[in-house]
């Protein structure tokens, strides 16, 4: 049981009904510029402020409260992993 509230009012929350909230996904990339261009220009994600300001990160907005964090990977041995990304995860929803 978790007690939450403010002031003089407290409410009990059943912790068995707690939900996880996803803040961001991090993805290491070999070529930061190519990856950022793909997600911005092909997928259509808007770029948002990059907090580190060291040239090795790009942040893109994926939803109202979520983002994609692209990180320039190491310059060592490169291992290429091919994956299939479901394009439906990136569709823009327009209400009727």
Q: In angstroms, what is the radius of gyration?
A: 19 Å
The helical percent reads 10-25%
The biggest beta sheet reads: 4 strands, mixed
For the terminal residues, how far apart are their CA atoms? 41 Å
Give the full name of the CATH homologous superfamily of the domain at 22-76.
Answer: 2,3-Dihydroxybiphenyl 1,2-Dioxygenase, domain 1
CATH architecture of the domain at 22-76: Roll
Strand portion: 25-35%
Strand order of the largest sheet: 3-6-5-4
Q: Strand-and-helix sequence, N→C?
A: EEEHEEE
Can you count the beta strands? 6
Descriptive notes:
The chain contains 1 helix and 6 strands. The chain is mostly beta strands. It has a domain of 55 residues: 2,3-Dihydroxybiphenyl 1,2-Dioxygenase, domain 1 (Roll), CATH 3.10.180.10. Strands 3-6-5-4 form a 4-stranded mixed beta sheet, covered by helices on one side. A two-stranded antiparallel ribbon has the order 1-2. It starts with a strand and ends in a 24-residue tail after the last strand. 8% of the residues are buried. The N terminus and C terminus are likely disordered.
